[in-house]
Amino acid sequence: MEKLPQDSAQISRMLTGKESARLGRRIFMRYIGATAAAGVALSACHSEMNDFSPRGAARAGDVVDLGDLETNDVAILNYAYALEQLEAAFYTQVIMTPYKGMTDKEYMILKDIKEHEIAHRELFKTALGGAAIPGLTPDFSSIDFMSRDSVLSVAQTYENVGVSAYNGAGKFIKSADYLTLAGKIVSVEARHAAVVATLIAPDSTMFAPDSIVDMNGLDMVRSFRQVLTLVGPFIKEKVNFNAA
Questions:
Q1: Residue 215 belongs to domain with CATH number
Q2: Residue 53 pLDDT more than 50?
């Protein structure tokens, strides 16, 4: 078993660069079934550890508190972890119950996205350790997983909201290493958003419409409150946070 990191600098090294690549490969290989990966246990920053619930499963109706998203990097990591939990659960269901008429190409694209989201979720879960929020319960009752239009519409919403969430959180992240990690993930989420837009309208040039990208070529930014309001109906627990 690998030795647990004892400080935030060591955590940061594990989340970026070569250590991140090694961790990501292990997580990815485990979930595509190519090998059994050895788990890597990381501890969270000691000064922030006690502000969060331990890992486990939340119960529908529970209140999950992220903490102060404007001052606490671990709170922001948990915010991202919550979003990645939702996306991973959604795409897992899409692949388990393919919609009517799903082509082989669509299946492979959505399967790749699923594996990316699972890798993101597990990266945050492992890195946060005992500081992680509980596992959230998705509420997909409003989604018709047999309908291509329903699935791709929700996928587009999740991806665009995910990109805007990372964009909005960036200015509050204090650690340069955490900011680097967020930049690496948001770039992948933007690739997802573009390919989903292409699946919806393959002959359209509007993969980045004005509603998402402004006249300066900059992507949309959403606040913590805006993001959690949009995803709230898809989560059975109530997710709270402290911010101005």
A1: 1.20.1260.10
A2: no
Q: Yes or no: say if 89 and 2 are a contact pair by the CB < 8 Å rule.
A: no
Task: Give the range of the structural domain holding residue 46, as residue numbers without chain letter.
Answer: 8-242
Query: Domain for residue 3, yes or no?
Result: no
Is the pTM higher than 0.90? The answer reads no
- Other Cβ atoms within 10 Å of 240 Cβ, number: 11
Terminal Cα-to-Cα distance of the chain (whole angstroms): 42
- The average pLDDT across 142-151 equals 98
- Three-state secondary structure of 185-223: HHHHHHHHHHHHHHHHCCCCCCCCCCCCECCCCCECCCC
CB distance 129 to 43 below 8 Å? yes
- Is 231 exposed, middle or buried, given 0-12, 13-18 or 19+ CB atoms closer than 10 A? buried
Q: What is the largest CA-CA distance in the chain?
A: 52
Closest to 116 in 3D by CA, of 193, 19, 188, 30: 188
Query: Which ranges of 50-145 would DSSP assign to H, the alpha helix?
Result: 73-96, 104-128
Give the C-alpha separation, 231 to 191, whole Å.
Answer: 20
DSSP-assigned letter for residue 109: H
Report d(CA 14, CA 10) in Å as an integer.
6
Whole-number pLDDT of residue 220: 86
